[in-house]
Design a protein that fits this description.
heterodimer, A: 211 residues, mainly alpha, B: 196 residues, 9 helices, globular
Chain lengths: 211, 196
Amino acid sequence: MKTDELITALVADRAAPGLSLARKILLALLVGGLLSLCLFLVILGVRHDFATALATWRFDLKLVLMLLALLLAFGVCRALARPITPPHPGRRLLPLLALAIAAVATELAVVPTAALGTRLVGSNALICLSAIPVLSLAPLAALLAALRSAAPPSPVLAGAAAGLLAAAGGAALYALHCFDDSPLFVATWYTLAAIPVVALGAVAGHRLLRW
Amino acid sequence: MFRRPGPNKKRPHTLSSSKDLSQLMRLARGGDDEAYRQLLGQVAVWLRGVARRGLVRAGRGVEDCEDVVQETLLAMHLKRDSWDAAQPLEPWLRAIAHHKLVDHLRRRGFRDHLDLADLAETLPSPQAAEEGASVDARQMLSCLSERQRGIVVAISIEGSSARDVGQKLGMSEGAVRVALHRALKILAVVYRRQQP
């Protein structure tokens, strides 16, 4: 095919513009999140003392951390899916890091040293480590599908960012179930649980998001 | 935050030397086919220079040049939603061209750093004419279904309109366009998978 002939074909293709990238990501997060929500309600369910927990600062802070993680990871994912990536997209996560450090520092100051070990280990660490990745799978799949129409300069990084956003979604759901509200527990185990999801996203991105 | 490009200097061989590409793309988005054709034509000429110099720089023959041009044009077309109309088109075009050229060379084992700005601006641009894609067109099109191939050939090579093709094949104009769009997506994948 000559290039001029290809151009004629391209001009004839008037496929309507799709949703904006931000909307595609949002929609994927919503669809994947709904699937995970069903799974969550069947397997884990919201903690029975939800109303009481809402009155404690640790639980509220945990929810704020989850919402902030979702918001910032969304920004990172969108930035890395564009052909022109802004410099240092990872710095967008700094507010989350700052809040997490502040929360941990407060916990360390408030809780007696002897009790810190129990706070850190919590009661649910293993469930946390497995539940968050499982709850992240559907959002990750939906996000990767949405990003296939994007044009990321680095498919690996874009996949990793999708993994981060999916992990934030999984963690936000799991946070509604988990009794361990200590910032020490959240900062440690939730982060560890996100790592395999980010890695999976990177590997999948390498395979699926190349263009 | 995006790094904004500096003020447009008048350089002889830059993309923007002849016409405001962003404006053409905006017109094209609004449904102006002539503007889109003009845009793709200008971009193809620019790409040809960039691809040729990139291939030479990587120590490869220029016989792949038109393949790179076509693959990049396809990518620009299929990913055109990723351009933010509030931004100038040129940096976006460069990003896509850089990605496709590096990808093309990587598949052929070239891993060194390649600076597109360098290729696009500091070297003299030979007004190379198109020499036809090195990959056999029939081989490329053979990855399409018979119907898709018929539609692509009728529209691109014979120059028929989508409506005429539809009448000939007993399809609606919309169905022809959907089939064409799918065919272009397949072609983009075929280009990407093709090994030297």
